[in-house]
Amino acid sequence: LTGAQDGSVRMFEWTRPQQLVCFRQAGNARVTRMYFNSQGNKCGVADGEGFLSIWQVNQTTSNPKPYLSWQCHSKTTSDFAFITSSSLVATSGQSNDNRNVCLWDTLASSGNSLIHAFTCHDHGATVLQYAPKHQLLISGGRKGYICIFDIRQRQILFTFQAHESAVKALALDPSEDYFVTGSAE
């Protein structure tokens, strides 16, 4: 799966030189993040205008439409994570009201899909990592702060400054004992 500054999203197969599917044409908002769900049957694309779009991967048409497309943040959606079996999605980004980390129910109608919005990360959340074993979300922000959320209780557990500049990367070890952050500096 490839995404570009021009907004295009294309899927390739290792053994074929041509694309299999073009999910988005050039001329859309820049792609900020893309993931497959854990089952591999859906892919999601976040973009610079605050949208998250999700497609079924096994499409037979050359230009399929997303089955879900929401504006999750008013400025940009920088990252997202599939939670459970893709029916719950967490997003990070920048919104005018500082609700920069959100939980969404993909099975609910678009008007009722926002489950919870966390007010955190002045100037926006840049990265997001889900820890399924502990049911935690870890987010990094533009000012170097890390927030850890309990998604069951829908509350922020910890906030601390890890860097002097924007957090650009988060990684979680498989046993969920440690996480690592990387920043713009």
UniProtKB/TrEMBL annotation:
GO CC aspect terms: RAVE complex
WD repeat segments: 160-185
Keywords, ordered alphabetically: WD repeat
InterPro entries per UniProt: DmX-like/RAVE_component, WD40/YVTN_repeat-like_dom_sf, WD40_repeat_dom_sf, WD40_rpt
GO BP of this protein: vacuolar acidification
Identification of the protein by name: DMXL2 protein
Species of the source: Oxyruncus cristatus
Gene that produces this protein: Dmxl2
